[in-house]
Design brief:
Blueprint lengths: L3 E4 L1 H8 L3 H17 L10 E3 L5 E7 L5 E9 L4 E9 L6
Parallel strand pairs: 1-5
Antiparallel strand pairs: 2-3, 3-4, 4-5
Length: about 90
C-alpha cells in the first residue's frame, strides 16, 4: 500500500523558490516516501525529530547553502505524510 504525500501551504510556497536541482531531489524524496513510507534512512543526515513525534528530516542538498526537508506522518490509517518545510538549513524548524 502506498503513502499519500502532500505539502503544507508554506512548504508549497517554499518549493517554488528552490533551485531546480533541489526541487528534483525533493521530488525524488517524496516519490520514495510514497512508495516506501516516511522512514528514509538512506538520505543524508536523516533523523527522527523529538522523542515521541512522528516528524523526520534529512538534507536534500549539502554544501552552502544546505537544503533540508522536514516531514510529518499525520495519520497511520490513511497513511498521509505532509512535507512541512523545504528550504535552507538556517531556517529549518527544528
Amino acid at each position: 500500500m502506498s503513502w499519500i504525500v502532500s505539502y503544507s501551504r508554506k512548504a508549497a510556497k517554499q518549493y517554488g523558490g528552490l533551485p531546480p536541482v533541489v526541487q528534483d531531489r525533493l521530488d525524488a524524496l517524496t516519490a520514495e516516501i510514497e512508495l516506501l513510507g516516511p522512514v528514509r534512512g538512506n538520505w543524508k543526515n536523516y533523523s527522527r525529530l523529538g522523542g515521541s513525534t512522528r516528524q523526520y528530516h534529512c538534507h536534500i542538498k549539502t554544501g552552502r547553502p544546505t537544503y533540508v526537508a522536514v516531514w510529518e506522518e499525520t495519520d497511520e490509517t490513511v497513511k498521509l505524510v505532509e512535507v512541512v518545510y523545504a528550504g535552507t538549513h538556517e531556517k529549518a524548524p527544528y
